[in-house]
Write a structure and sequence with these properties.
By secondary structure, the chain is mainly alpha-helical. It is built from 3 helices and no strands.
């Protein structure tokens, strides 16, 4: 493969209509996104996971061994239940990480801005140079 020119859309996609990037990066937008995760997405995900957990547990019991006899389906449902539980936990961990990243982004960006500002404001050697008076 050979590239002879820059692509018409050098951004790799993800832009909104009109070619503007779809990136929310103000402190207020980051806070709002983190709060939405905390107040809506996490509780909803936790509730859905708990509901599925209860329903699957009921199904495992219904198909389980009674008087030494049970359905083979019980073991399969139990295995699927374990996988589901792991996936819900992974999603909750991911949401928690995303929430922390959104809240920490302002601190990281502010530190970068402060560092860049300090570098720009350094006193130049020329600023401190004072010529010797000539006699």
């Amino acid at each position: 493969m050979r590239l002879n020119q820059i692509p018409a859309d050098p951004g790799g996609g993800g832009g909104a209509a009109g070619g503007q990037p779809d990136l929310a990066s103000s402190p207020a937008e980051n806070r709002a996104a983190a709060n939405a995760i905390q107040l809506t997405v996490e509780p909803g995900t936790r509730a859905a996971g708990a509901w599925a957990d209860d329903e699957t547990g009921t199904a495992v019991k219904a198909f389980g061994a009674m008087d030494g006899h049970g359905w083979l389906t019980s073991g399969a449902v139990q295995k699927a239940h374990k996988t589901w539980s792991d996936q819900v936990q992974n999603l909750m961990n991911r949401l928690s990480g995303d929430k922390a990243a959104l809240r920490g982004a302002n601190t990281i960006l502010m530190g970068t801005d402060t560092g860049a500002g300090a570098g720009v404001r350094k006193v130049s050697v020329l600023d401190t140079y004072s010529p010797q008076p000539q006699h």
